[in-house]
Design a protein that fits this description.
Radius of gyration: 41 Å
Low-confidence stretches: 1-7, 27-54, 57-64
CATH topology of the largest domain: Rhomboid-like fold
Structural class: mainly alpha
Number of helices: 13
Shape: elongated
Distance between the termini: 157 Å
Number of strands: 8
Length: 346
């Protein structure tokens, strides 16, 4: 009995010691016989029962409650937790289309596309000059087909140009083959190339300046053909003027070739020009001198007018076009004088 009493006394003293140690360590014992734990620290911003370490949901309100099992409206057998952020339809990952906020279902995307404002084509909206030239080419070509003798009256024929019918150098750039192997292909190719590259040049320099540049480059192409080409062979087509448009665009890109995108564009244009010139030298019936002259005229116009940072002033544009025109007209006058000298035996 004395041993038992002694043990009870020792146990009592031990509990007293444990309580004192717990106070010194800021540990509150849960019970006399249980393990001790640290008290929960209070948040400086207020009391919180439990802090979640999961990242916040990037699309709050777009995921349904875990306890609610939903199925995709487009795939009824596919369970999902996603909803369309626009109409709240349940959608699966195959149907969800990423949006600026959340995700949309295919129906909402289709409805948004239908209600979007209609935008005119780049040709009509930004390049009326290109549209007008293509229209003139088509009307003139149809007139060639329907009116006998029309082509012969306005085609470029060097002997008649030397005889004073100089307008043929201008009218022929709106005419195209009305028969033979180039029927249809001739006008379609020229109009298509103009449709591709013309709007870019017109947007760079404006419609009035673009039209003046187009005519100047076309005249330059016919001047090269008149001076260097075969004298007794007639020619027609807009390819000289079209090559001039490409030359203007090349001159613009050369000054900006440091840009990776514009540099690639420039290389593509140079490949296109080289391929067409090679084709012109190897295939009969192609007036390659008109192509070269138009390209030279376009490069000159683009090099003189491009200010790199701003559009050229009307004075610079007019002076540049006039300078190229003077060169072209001088070539025509020189060739005409040379023909007259030969005809007189001088």
């Amino acid at each position: 009995m004395k041993v038992v009493g002694r043990n009870r006394e020792l146990i009592g003293h031990m509990h007293i010691v444990i309580d004192e140690v717990a106070k010194l360590r800021d540990i509150r014992p849960e019970s006399r016989g249980g393990a001790a734990r640290r008290p929960e620290k209070k948040s400086p911003c207020g009391t919180m029962d439990r802090v979640s370490h999961q990242p916040p949901d990037p699309n709050p309100g777009q995921v349904v409650d875990e306890s609610q099992q939903l199925y995709c409206y487009g795939h009824p057998k596919t369970p999902t937790r996603l909803r369309c952020s626009r109409c709240e339809r349940p959608i699966c990952g195959r149907c969800a289309i990423p949006a600026s906020v959340g995700q949309h279902c295919p129906e909402c995307v289709a409805e948004a596309r239908k209600s979007a404002p209609k935008v005119r084509s780049a040709l009509r909206a930004n390049a009326p000059g290109v549209y007008a030239i293509i229209g003139i080419n088509v009307v003139v070509w149809l007139t060639q087909l329907l009116v006998p003798g029309f082509t012969e009256r306005f085609i470029d024929f060097p002997p008649l140009v030397a005889d004073g019918e100089w307008w043929r150098l201008v009218t022929s750039m709106f005419m195209h083959a009305d028969g033979g192997s180039f029927f249809l292909f001739h006008i379609l190719l020229n109009c298509y190339i103009l449709y591709i590259y013309g709007p870019e040049v017109e947007q760079l320099y404006g419609t009035p300046t673009f039209l003046a540049m187009y005519l100047t480059a076309g005249l330059m192409g016919n001047a090269f053909s008149y001076v260097f080409g075969p004298f007794g062979v007639p020619s027609l087509g807009a390819s000289g003027a079209v090559f001039g448009v490409v030359g203007i665009l090349i001159a613009y890109l050369v000054k900006r070739r440091a840009s990776a995108a514009l540099g690639n564009y420039l290389r593509g244009l140079l490949f296109f020009v080289g391929l067409n010139l090679m084709f012109g030298f190897t295939v009969q019936g192609i007036n390659n001198w008109a192509h070269i002259g138009g390209l030279v005229g376009g490069l000159a116009l683009g090099g003189l007018m491009d200010r790199k940072r701003t559009k050229p002033s009307p004075l610079i544009a007019s002076a540049s076009i006039l300078a190229v025109l003077v060169v072209g007209v001088s070539m025509i006058l020189w060739r005409t004088a040379a023909v007259e000298s030969l005809s007189l035996g001088l």
